[in-house]
Amino acid sequence: MSSIGATVSGESSSAIEQQVRNLIYTGCLLLDANDFVGWLGQCAPEFRYTISTYSPEIRKDQTWLDHDFEGMAHLINLLPKHNSDQTPLTRHATVYTIDYEPAANEAKVVTSVAIYATTLDGGETSLYALARYHDVVDLAGTPRLKRRVVRLETRSLGIGKHWPL
Amino acid sequence: MARGTAEWERRPALPPTHYVHPAIYTDPEILREEQEKIFSKVWYLACHESELPSANDYRAYQHPAGKSLLIARGEDGRIRTFYNVCPHRGNTLVYGPAGNAKHITCIFHAWAFSTKGDCVEITREKQGYGDRLSKKDYGLHEVRTEVGFGGFVYVNLDDSAGPLAEFVGHALDGMLKCLESEPLEVFHYHKALVNTNFKFWHDTNSEFYHDYMHYHNRQTSMLQPSYWEREYIPFPNGHAQVGDQVVKYEAYEGFKGRDLSFPGLERNGWKMVDLFPGFTYNLRGSALRIDTIVPLGPAKTIIEYRGLGLRNDTPEQRAQRINDYNSIWGPFGRNLHEDLMGVTGQGGRIGRGQSWILHAREEANKIHDEIGMRHYYAEWSRRMGRLASNPYSEP
Question: How far apart are CA B280 and CA B284, in angstroms?
């Protein structure tokens, strides 16, 4: 692993870093807009999505959602069939680290994210969840997300959610 | 035809056992009475023995009667329960939800206790108390505890209550082979803090008419002929079993049949038992879900969800059970979110204009019959001394 000071395909490190940041932040905007199809379009075919957390109660790591690309496509496709809470979520994300792995032509990215819920009736905003995105970004061609682990700090999620975080 | 206020508030022209008064879900005094007359008297499922696998493991537990308890496995292997309070000055003994400690030491004045509940240390005992007070007289306040029905830790605050087996009776007989052929292990735990009454959650677990809310269940269950043959079987003490069914998981886009199962459960089988006064064993295919509740107020409830597999699972089997469980029952599962939307919808409206809550469907005890709720409220009425449809009458 090397720092982002390295280059890929002749591009400057700052350009690669900017592309990675754009991918993460654009993804947040798509998720905020409930454009889940658009968000999945940013992901590589080998994409895998996981929501996990640690339970101090049972002293075990837990996986609460785990799908490959196809599984996420099914989940998104079926959303209109389900009864889902429509309270909008808004992400406030900060990319903390970008580590470039030249051999794999990918970057490992850690992003801190605070997710807020704003009620439709009245517009009251409250913190819904704190988490970190642990992403792997494929840098061959247009950067694409090939792995996302949403590592939740918040475990009390009220009535839960049908959407990706 | 829409109704005016007088018609809206008129008692339904139904037997008084077939509807309940909305105040049983909203009145703080009724909740206090439920905690005293029901939760303080019955056996209640607190956790699973696999949450305390080793000697000196402990688990904090918030009991639905409003008590803070501490469950610990002693060095003799036995699981015991105590009030989570120091007998010296009433301080909380354990603050975290779980841990391991040979001695549980109060942070305040360092009195210490063994996981068998004995007081083993009073700091500067002789200097302060001389012979006026002795460690042997200051053990923890122990709560009756039994482990059973799949290795679950049950507690009862009433020292004079009958044994656990008497309370559960035969309600879990149809599931016992699944629960007790092999040791179970918890793999999932989460809490949902929701604005609803605890009984709304148990009501939802006690009727399947609400499957219209679940796209997943409509596809995988309601469209299968065996669904309509599921029958409720009421048991003494307010418990009810829902008849078994085989689920067609592959009928839901992207889902596959559940190749893993439990001992004694046919492939893709589903067994469910609701126990009074509000906990549920729900076994679907490869995973067992246990629901328990902690009422914080008439319209605020913690619902605890546990997922269990077999202790001897291979890593691959365990991963499959976890995936199966969460696909429908996790915080991001297809069904649980909808169920919780339903009960918070009830919790948000009840007392703000709702009149009567109907439990009146009769379909020969089959799956859309509401006998499960009626049976529950018959026991509730017996213990509370009046009908749930008339909660302000004199006991």
Answer: 13
Q: Phi, psi at residue B377, to the nearest 5°?
A: -75, -20
Model confidence pLDDT, tens digit, residues A125-148: 999 999 999 999 999 999 999 999
End-to-end, the C-alpha distance of chain B in Å comes to 37
Residue contact A55–B215, C-beta within 8 A: no
| Nearest CA-CA partner of A111 in A126, A131, A129 | A131
The DSSP symbol for B226 reads G
Q: Which residues of B touch A75 (CB under 8 A)?
A: 254
Closest C-alpha among A85, A88, A71 to residue A35: A88
**pLDDT score, position B69:** 98
Q: Mind listing the pLDDT tens digit for each residue in B316-366?
A: 999 999 999 999 999 999 999 999 999 999 998 887 777 899 999 999 999
Q: Find out whether B2 and B375 touch, Cβ atoms under 8 Å.
A: no
CB within 8 Å: A71 and B254: yes
User: Which residues 288-327 of B are in CB contact (within 8 Å) with A?
Assistant: 319, 322-323, 326
Distance CA B281, CA B292 (A): 9
Question: Where in chain B does DSSP place strands (E)?
Answer: 19-20, 44-48, 57-62, 68-73, 79-83, 98-100, 103-105, 112-114, 119-121, 142-148, 152-156, 184-194, 232-235, 239-246, 269-275, 279-284, 287-297, 300-310, 357-358
Of B72-81, B173-182, B251-260, the least confident: B251-260
pLDDT score of A4 more than 70: no
Which residues from B are below 8 Å from A81, CB to CB?
Answer: 215
Q: What is the pLDDT of residues A35-77, one digit of tens each?
A: 999 999 999 999 999 999 999 999 999 999 999 999 999 999 9
What ipTM score was computed for the predicted complex, to two decimals?
A: 0.95
| DSSP-derived secondary structure letter, B252 | S
Task: Answer yes or no: do B191 and A63 touch at CB < 8 A.
Answer: no
Which residue shows structure tokens 């599962």? Answer: B333
Name the residue among B378, B164, B201, B377 with its Cα closest to residue B295. Answer: B201
Structure tokens at B347: 């919790």
Whether A1 shows a pLDDT value over 50: the answer reads: no
Name the token pair of B234: 């009421």
Q: What is the CA radius of gyration of chain A?
A: 16
